[in-house]
């Protein structure tokens, strides 16, 4: 390492208390699917993640709807 250079900082994720790795992967996938305009709803029952609901929205270009 050259003088004055610092080693990169590695941040270890904190252990999760409520989510399992499979559930985290499922949420990540849902976030990728909804894209820039969407919602991901986490449904929790009795302290456990039971469902992941997604709502995908798409922008409508107003210029295309104008006549002429």
Please write out the topology:
Elements: H1 21-34, E1 38-45, E2 48-56, H2 62-65
Antiparallel strand pairs: 1-2
Helix content: 25-40%
Report strand order across the widest sheet: 1-2
Q: Major beta sheet, specifics? A: 2 strands, antiparallel
Which residues form runs of ≥5 with pLDDT under 50?
none
Structure classification: alpha+beta
Distance between the termini: 64 Å
What is the N-to-C order of secondary-structure elements (H for helix, E for strand)? HEEH
Extended strand count = 2
Number of helices: 2
Radius of gyration: 21 Å
Characterise this structure.
The protein is of the alpha+beta class and 68 residues long. The chain has a domain at 35-62. The protein has 2 helices and 2 strands. The chain has a two-stranded antiparallel ribbon with strand order 1-2. The longest helix is centred in the middle third of the chain and has 14 residues, at 21-34. It is flat and about 65 Å long.
């Amino acid at each position: 390492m050259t003088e004055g250079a610092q080693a990169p900082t590695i941040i270890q994720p904190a252990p999760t208390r409520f989510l399992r790795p499979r559930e985290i992967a499922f949420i990540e996938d849902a976030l990728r699917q909804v894209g820039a305009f969407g919602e991901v709803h986490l449904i929790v029952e009795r302290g456990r993640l039971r469902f992941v609901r997604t709502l995908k929205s798409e922008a409508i270009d107003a210029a295309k709807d104008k006549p002429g």
